[in-house]
Specification:
- Keywords: ATP-binding, Kinase, Nucleotide biosynthesis, Nucleotide-binding, Transferase.
- ATP binds at residues 13-20.
- The protein is an alpha/beta fold.
- The protein has a single domain, classed as P-loop containing nucleotide triphosphate hydrolases (Rossmann fold, 3-Layer(aba) Sandwich), CATH 3.40.50.
- The chain has eight helices and five strands; from the N terminus they run E-H-E-H-H-E-H-H-E-H-H-E-H.
- It has helices spanning 19-31, 47-58, 63-87, 98-108, 113-123, 139-148, 161-176, 191-206; strands at 8-12, 37-41, 91-95, 131-136, 182-186.
- A five-stranded parallel sheet has the order 2-3-1-4-5, sandwiched between helices.
């Protein structure tokens, strides 16, 4: 008997959007229904991807170098983990995917959109997440949350507010063009309210 293809769910949002606890809630919900779930993140997800993540987050570099490193890490992630998991019938829940590159590198930094589209078509032709959950909130709220963690910021987190306003706008642009793939969740609410909406969306889509 053929193995059913797994599903691919991604979580997106600017730094400070509060994705981490909601990803855990989603994984618990899926596993509670007997599904095999593989949880990962981008950039990262593989030993090579994690090394590239450190470079991208902490080393100054040319914009196009940055974009290509993001997609290099993504290609390794797809080959080593995402595609094998989906083929084996496992569900993949990932903190960020190509929507983040569009938002941060195209929207935030001004990468040529055609170059992004060429990389996307090369690295994962015909593949998009089955569902993307975009946690949306004002950049000033996100910045206050990041500052409250007490952790040293990476070079993205040190960007000015106008950078995150462009990132947020690009995320919302991508969502508007997604034909229902991207569901926008108001993240400027208590975590319990956000979790309730998240689980209702999963129930609606996958129950």
């Amino acid at each position: 008997m053929a193995v059913a293809q797994g599903r691919f769910i991604t979580f997106e949002g600017i730094d400070g959007a509060g994705k981490s606890s909601q990803i855990a809630a989603a994984v618990d919900w899926l596993q509670g229904r007997g599904l095999a779930v593989e949880q990962s993140r981008e950039p990262g997800g593989t030993p090579l991807g994690e090394r590239l993540r450190e470079l991208v987050l902490h080393e100054a570099m040319d914009l196009e170098t940055e974009a290509m490193l993001m997609f290099a890490a993504r290609r390794e992630h797809l080959a080593a983990r995402i595609l094998p998991a989906l083929a084996a019938g496992r569900w993949v829940v990932c903190d960020r995917f190509s929507d983040a590159t569009y938002a941060y590198q195209v929207g935030g930094r001004g990468l040529d959109k055609a170059k992004f589209e060429a990389l996307e078509a090369w690295v994962h032709p015909g593949l998009q997440p089955d569902l993307t959950l975009l946690f949306d909130l004002p950049p000033e709220v996100a910045a206050a949350r990041v500052a409250g963690t007490g952790e040293a910021p990476d070079r993205f987190e040190r960007e000015r507010r106008d950078f995150f306003e462009r990132v947020r706008a690009a995320y919302l642009e991508r969502a508007a063009a997604s034909s229902g793939r991207i569901r926008v969740i108001d993240a400027n609410r208590p975590p319990a309210a956000i979790r309730e909406e998240l689980l209702a969306l999963l129930q609606e889509r996958y129950a």
